Amino acid sequence: MAPSKDQLACVIPGGFTVLSLRFSEDDDHAALHQLCVKEHRVRSESNTDRPLDRTLFVLNVPPYCTQSVLADVFSRFGPIQSVELSDKPGVSESSDSDVSEYFRAARRQCFRVAYIVFSSESGVAAAKRHPRSIPLTVSTAGRPVRTGVSKWIQQYSESLVNSSSLQDAVDQFMTDFDRQKTEEAERLKQAAVQQQEDEEGWVKVTKGSRGAKARPHSEMANQRTLQKEEKKKQRKELLNFYSWQHRNTQKEHIAELRKKFEEDKQKIAILRAQRKFRPF
């Protein structure tokens, strides 16, 4: 017997299947929320934790649906390996994976997208075949989802930080940081030991990491570097001295010209006062 029209999956343009979502079993006459699901097939993300044949891409996920809630809702289609929530489609948001939970930015409450990875391909196919007329339930008696005042109290309780746990996280971070610095110093020391200097004073520089310039660390190279810096300093001081001397010379020349000008003015005044007609 062929399935009725109401038991068929609702597929919209773009290849998305529409799934109905209700909050609780008691909301039979309440408005249903619509989810759009599709098999995840982005070739550029083939090297991520989203297998192309076992990942279900979900749009329009409401704010009250957490990772655990989505795992419970979609577990009816098959065993789930992982659930990832993101504010927008794209590459995996793994930049804060190594950051402690105490220092991560709080997620804003909004509609998001989800990537649900099933243990087998049959889970994706079962979700795409699910009819729209049979809604999925978010909150059940076995797995209730808190709302209203109880949800706010839970969020407030979770926002309080345990001082001992925070101190343990800080101590662990500092321990890892000190270990990384020690390992980095050890690598630099080993790289310096590998550099050898021949009889003529040339330094053999090994190839360092990409983007970093390898520097010689021999005694003769250090002396040459110090001599170059000293010569630069002396040239700078000498240049400043000549500039100062040049300025003083200009000032003296201008003063001499003014003095000569005053003397010439006096001579002209005397000649004008002694002006006489002397033909012979």
**Average pLDDT rating:** 78
Helix content: 40-55%
Radius of gyration from CA coordinates: 41 Å
Order of helices and strands: EEEEHEEHEHHEEH
The unreliable regions are none
Number of strands: 9
State the end-to-end distance: 151 Å
Key structural traits:
single chain, 280 residues, alpha+beta, 7-stranded mixed sheet, two-stranded antiparallel sheet, 5 helices, 9 strands, elongated
Give the topology.
Blueprint: E1 10-12, E2 16-24, E3 33-39, E4 55-61, H1 67-74, E5 80-86, E6 112-118, H2 121-129, E7 136-139, H3 148-159, H4 163-194, E8 196-197, E9 203-204, H5 219-273
Parallel strand pairs: 2-7
Antiparallel strand pairs: 1-2, 2-3, 3-4, 4-6, 5-6, 8-9
Give the gist of this structure.
With 280 residues, this protein is an alpha+beta fold.
Describe it.
The chain is an alpha+beta fold and 280 residues long. The protein is built from five helices and nine strands, in the order E-E-E-E-H-E-E-H-E-H-H-E-E-H. It is elongated and about 135 Å long. The protein starts with 9 loop residues before the first strand and ends in a 7-residue tail after the last helix.
